Each structure stands twice: as structure tokens, then as C-alpha cells.
Description:
Layout: H1 4-11, E1 15-19, H2 24-34, E2 40-45, H3 48-59, E3 66-70, H4 76-86, E4 90-93, H5 100-105, H6 107-128, E5 132-138, H7 147-162, E6 169-175, E7 177-179, H8 185-194, E8 207-212, H9 213-226, E9 231-234, E10 239-241
Parallel strand pairs: 1-2, 1-4, 2-3, 4-5, 5-6, 6-9, 7-8
Antiparallel strand pairs: 8-10
Amino acid sequence: SIDVASVSATISGRVIAVTGAAGSIGSELCRQLMTMKPSRLVLIDIDESRLYELWLELRRTDATCPGMRILDVRDSVKTLRVLSEEKPAVLLHAAAYKHVPLMELEPDEAVRANVLGTRNLLEASRAAGVEHFVFISTDKAVAPQSVMGRTKAVAEMLVLAAGRDRLLKTTAVRFGNVLGSRGSVVPIFEDQLRRGGPLLVTHPDVTRYFMTIPEAARLVMAASAISDGGEIFVLKMDGLRIIDL
């Protein structure tokens, strides 16, 4: 549970932007933000179909609040232009490449999206007068063993460094494994079950830390409300053996 009143105070009547808005985490974040009545909610994504579908869905709650922008955060020029035009007070950065095995095959893409894309957004946020930058990170950034984890760890460093002079308040929120999100192991297991098995696991004793999509979204909003800047927040989760899952 979160203190809804304190979160609403940071959202209500203000312009809020969400990158990666069309993703599983970003879209749930946007749904919950809409209940807190921002003056405008800017949906930012590169996936045009999912972006448009989300915009149509949110307009059923408030026809004037949601706006949508197609933006590749790897494009520094357009990133600055979009933030300068929209002037968000709070930016929640959920856009990222997060598929661990795929990023091992394409490390350059992981760096361009997760590191350089985050840097572009930070620089544009400072120039456009954003007050609070909230970065969606991962527990894989802790002693990272993968390309994806390493890129998110570097991005965390950039986020915290960008807020040291207090001109921009910056916060990072580390997620565990989000059940049912795009890239989650759960839909893969479900597909394997539909095909009659077997379930393929790395090792039966591997332990993972899970949260649901609504829990993940609430964590971001709670962190944005209580943060003084320069912090990393982690949801307390219980480990679950993959074989038990």
C-alpha cells in the first residue's frame, strides 16, 4: 500500500511525462497516474500501435489529459524538442531494452538505448526545466553479470550524477522480475505448458524476486513522492525458487 494523498500531491494539476509508456510497466503506470488527475499526461514511446491504443484507452477516463509523442530517446535532438514543447514537471523514464539474452547478442543496442538514451533524457530534462527525473532500473544492476544489467548500472550512475547539483531532482527505482510483463518468464512458461511441456529452467534452485505489474507501478509513484533526490529505492520482496514458481 502507498500513501495516495502524498503521491497525488506531486501529480495533481501538473504535466507528467512517461517514456516507454506503451510497455507493460509504462502503461500500468499511466493508468494509475490518470487517477491522480495530472493536467496533462504525455505518453512517449517508439511503438506507434501500442502507443495509440493506450492513448485511446486513457481518453475514456479523461478526453483532454493524455497526449502522445512518438520519440526514440536515442535521438538527442528530438528528445530535447519534445521535452521543451511539453515542459513536464516530472518525467518517469521506463523506456529501455531489458531482454537479457538478446542484449548479450546486441550489446551496442543495449548501450545506445539504456545508456545514451538515458543521458539524452537527462540533458534534455535539465534544459527543459524538468523538476524530477525518476529512472526505472533493475535489480540486475547490482553486481551486474549481464550486458543489460551493466547498461542499467551505468545509467543509474548517470542519473544520480545528474542530480548532484540539485538543479534536477533524480531518483532511481530498482525492479525485481515483474510477473506477466513483456519479457517476463511467466508467459514463456505458459506457452511451454500449452505445448505440453517441458518447462525449461536454468536451474531448479535459482531464486528470483517477483512483483506484480500494479505493485511495480505503485512503487514508482511512491518513490517519486518520498524522494529527496539522489536515492535508489528497492521494493522489499521475498525470494521465490523458480521451480516453485
